[in-house]
From TrEMBL:
Protein name: Histidine kinase N-terminal 7TM region domain-containing protein
Keywords: Membrane, Transmembrane, Transmembrane helix
Source organism per UniProt: marine sediment metagenome
TM ranges: 12-31, 43-62, 74-96
Length: 107
């Protein structure tokens, strides 16, 4: 097959090793945030970690696959999860800024 589908030792270490550590840490952080409180702000903040973690899960699934349409679909979900994550921090910041502004107006 193509090099893209070659599960070499380096690719296994990258996909299942390094990204596996990130996956575990991000799921841990998201769970800790959600267990602390389920307020809307915490759910949005947890999304910052959940989105790339779900993307990495898709990467784990498609790494050994060779069916091109499935690989392309799962690659899209992997990239989307990773690229979508910063939106959660932007929304989180906007909510904090809005609440600060409201606090200043109340004084």
């Amino acid at each position: 097959g193509m090099v893209f589908f070659d599960l070499s030792t380096g690719r296994i270490l990258t996909v299942y090793g390094a990204q596996g550590v990130i996956l575990v840490v991000f799921f841990y952080l998201a769970i800790r945030i959600l267990l602390r409180d389920r307020k809307r702000l915490n759910v949005i903040f947890a999304g910052l970690y959940l989105s790339p973690a779900i993307g990495i899960l898709f990467n784990w699934i498609y790494a050994p696959l060779t069916d091109v349409p499935i690989v392309q679909l799962f690659n899209f979900f992997t990239n989307f999860g990773t690229i979508y994550a910063p939106i959660f921090i932007v929304v989180f910041d906007l909510i904090l800024l809005k609440s600060e502004k409201m606090d200043m107006l109340m004084c």
